[in-house]
Write a structure and sequence with these properties.
The protein is α+β, with helices and mostly antiparallel strands. Bound molecules: fe (ii) ion. The site of fe (ii) ion (FE2) has 4 residues, from loops.
Length: 286
């Protein structure tokens, strides 16, 4: 038994590679984070020539874009592919066309900072084996009604590689996530399959390249829908294959994720996300 998690919860996380904790966060706090995300979206909308569109395989459409590559220590806005018309103009108000905000709200914005360090998170991180958890990346994912795009099957270790592998996803349902509005799907036990690709910077550090380690795709059968009510925390092992479908419904599916690594592991210098000036912090509030 852990400090926060029961023995049964720990066993389930180890066996399946994910664990849902319904009611981890008050609905009120979720709604406050939602309001703040929409405010940040209005404040940080980039000029049109900097607009970066996100594709379903997790790479920005303009992978060489410094706007994306330097977002590890900033608050930046990324758009949905369908956000622009044929002439390159946004179809609606910018904050309604966003795919996500990333990637350092947890260190740069007070509302996100306190949400990211809610009581209980440090104990949960310790229970699942992070000895020195460091919050590496935060993303606020809008998955807007009707235009929210799919995210193809991937593992988070592919993008945030440590030796040994330590990355854990902390995914919070800010809205109710259902099959209809594009909830996550994951392959139970799939974290035992060796990770099949690694995304890293090219030699000139101007673009991301995807290195294939195993050509065989992940099984498409057996994925489980991770439907989650507002306030649910879902823990995801870094090697767990997961994905989400497009949001074709008329309900938004906002979510917030933090990716944490262990400070005792080596974080590779050619990972895309780098923090040259902003030190990484843990879950403790200070
Ligand atoms: Fe992911």
């Amino acid at each position: 038994m852990g400090k926060f998690l029961t023995a049964a919860q720990l066993t389930s996380f180890q066996r399946h590679g994910f664990l849902a904790l319904p009611g981890f966060v008050d609905a009120r706090r979720c709604l406050d984070l939602r309001d703040r995300a929409l405010e940040l979206a209005r404040l940080h909308v980039p000029p049109p020539d900097k607009a970066t569109i996100f594709t379903a395989d997790g790479t920005p459409l303009h992978a060489s874009d410094q706007y994306f590559l330097t977002s590890g220590e900033a608050i930046r806005c990324f758009f949905e592919r369908d956000a622009f018309d044929a002439n390159g103009w946004l179809r609606a108000d910018a904050h309604l066309c966003l795919n996500k905000l990333g990637h350092a709200m947890h260190d740069l914005d007070p509302v996100f900072d306190s949400f990211s360090r809610l009581p209980g998170l440090a104990a949960v991180a310790g229970d699942i084996g992070l000895k020195e958890p460091l919050l590496l990346q935060s993303m606020y994912i809008f998955k807007q009604a009707r235009i929210g795009g799919e995210v193809k099957c991937h593992t988070d270790h592919t993008y945030l590689w440590t030796e040994p592998r330590t990355v854990i996803g902390f995914w919070f349902a800010i809205d109710d996530a259902t099959v209809e509005n594009g909830c996550m799907w994951a392959l139970p036990g799939g974290h035992r399959i060796p990770v099949k690709s690694r995304s890293r910077l090219n030699a000139s550090r101007t673009a991301m390249v995807l290195e294939t380690l195993d050509k065989e795709p992940y099984p498409t059968q057996g994925l489980e829908a991770l439907e989650a009510a507002r306030g649910t925390l879902i823990l995801l092992d870094g090697a767990l294959p997961h994905m989400s479908g497009p949001n074709l419904s008329d309900k938004p599916r906002h979510a917030y994720t933090i990716h944490a690594i262990d400070g005792s592991a080596e974080y590779l210098a050619d990972n895309w996300l780098q923090r040259p000036t902003l030190p990484l912090r843990g879950f403790a509030m200070n």
